[in-house]
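Raw record, unedited: RRM domain-containing protein
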Amino acid sequence: MAACRRIPKSIFGSIFSRSSTGFQSSSSFGPSSSLISRRGIASRLYIAGLSFYTTEKALLDAFSQYGQVVEANVLMDKVSSRSKGFGFVTYASTDEAEKAIAEMDGKTLHGRIITVELAKPRTQRNTGVPIARGPPEPPIEQQ
């Protein structure tokens, strides 16, 4: 563990990625998606309308025919452990992503019509707990 303390957090963060089930090692078939997205050489697609039975492997197989897929994610519900009905696919280039959007948008995948579009960048959310300070003070009347 002492060796991990000497590794800069930026390097250590790209080795492990946080998922709904805990820490998992990054994929072994290419550079981590966080590294690629920081460099701006990848295009991430948002896929909506997925079947609850669609797995990451099935999503990877369906979209890999349009280019080199770096990563495929299906977001899972923590309580029921089944798909939330949407996911993300990351391509190595913008041209491949545009080709996948043109071909797969409105198509059927596992019995459901899916919507494919470019993913919007994540916004920073305040994850802290709001501070409760009691009821507001009454306005002060000026004389």
